[in-house]
Amino acid sequence: MLETLKAKITTLTRRDDPRSQAAIYNILMSLGVKGGGIVVNLLLVSSTISYINTIQYGIWLTISSIVGWMTFFDIGLGNGLRNKLAIAMAEENREDARILVSTTYASLAAIGLMLFLFFFTVNPLIDWEKFLNIPKNAVGDITYIMMIVSTSFCVQFIVQVLNTVLTAIHKPAIAALIAFIGQLGILVAISILKHFVEGDLQTLVWALTFIPILVLIISSIYLYSSSLRFLTPSIKKIRIKYVKSIMNTGGTFFIIQIGAMLLFQTNNIIITKILGPTSVTEFNVMFKLFSVITMVFTIVITPYWSAFTDAYVKNDFSWMKNTLRLIRTTWLGLSIGSIVLLMVSKTALHIWIGDKAPFSWPLACSMAIYTVVFMWQTMHVYILNGLNKVRLQLILVIVGALTNIPFGIYLGKIYGLPGIICSNTIVFLVIGLTCSFQVEKILNGTANGLWSK
């Protein structure tokens, strides 16, 4: 298998294949950056849990999930920009590229402002302690904490467009570096707080939300005044009519994002409602352990979204078929890695978290299986996204999202955390198998009807 992988990489990185050269370069750079990011992320979890208690950490995870739902209110503009910008760059149309970037920033700024005003109005009216099942005296002023988180999100909602731009122009490694710097900044801040400030969720939230925003703002100013000068957003380049063009591509993505929200962001709510905030921590600790595998796979697959867009515009089906085989080989290797991690997971958790880490073999086994299935699904979904063939995916995600919540609640009440993970796994298995079949049909030129949309 290693020899096959080596041969594929040698073929794909030949001098006359700049698309693959860019993808492999970004993968290698991202592996270096995100390798450090994985270490920082693991240290961040253990450091955060030691700074506040497990109940408060579970509450924070639940809050971040709820506010994370607001990400999907970009109405598909982010992914729409990603595909449209990749096409503009493939056609070497820099004027359109700058208009797309400027218009997206303006649109998201308007949406972000409306979200802030809405949350500012309704936040005092919500009994968050009751809604989140928070024990008495577990945190301070939860309403104030929610205001901090939501406000910071509305700002990040706008400035994170930089990451979309970098990914669309085949520079995701730079986006990974920016994220790494933000994570490292949080880790340093928490390490300082542990020595000078008593453990407090409100203080932690300030560190977790403010630092990534600051890093993104500084990075935006630097990049748009240097290497990305040709894409610098400008009021003069805003074209309202381009919103429709972006939305034509991003509208379906928006609905898919809503479905994805229900698939990815509801677990913490289900868990805290059924099993309590402590179980949210147990679930997320195990999830973050296995996310080491999924993060590596995401590093590999991310450059290929826009690369497949470029190849499809240029009708380079040979490249797409060869690349798909390489990605699937990578999936197989990381799936084996997931099984290895399962076997050492108890020891790994003890080294990582210490005695505070609860361990359950059923939970670890279900998470390992989930990881393998999730990577298979992600691989083919990313390719279809790059090809802009998302109609079937839309149907699958909507059905899966509507099924996952009641199914997750049902299995969660019977089997606990493994049951909730099992529900996710089944949904992703169906989506992954169907999407892989669609990718094969498109690349072989046999896709008709819904398979071609």
UniProtKB/TrEMBL annotation:
Q: Tell me what topology the record assigns in the membrane.
A: Multi-pass membrane protein
Q: Which UniProt keywords apply?
A: Cell membrane, Membrane, Transmembrane, Transmembrane helix
Give the transmembrane ranges.
23-45, 57-78, 99-122, 142-162, 174-197, 203-224, 245-265, 285-308, 329-353, 359-378, 390-409, 415-435
Transmembrane helix found in the keyword field = yes
Write out the annotated subcellular location: Cell membrane
Q: Does the keyword Metal-binding apply?
A: no
Give the InterPro entries listed for this entry: Poly_Biosynth_Transport, Polysacc_synth
Q: What is its main location?
A: membrane
From the Swiss-Prot or TrEMBL record, give the protein name: O-antigen export protein
Q: Which organism is it from?
A: Dyadobacter endophyticus
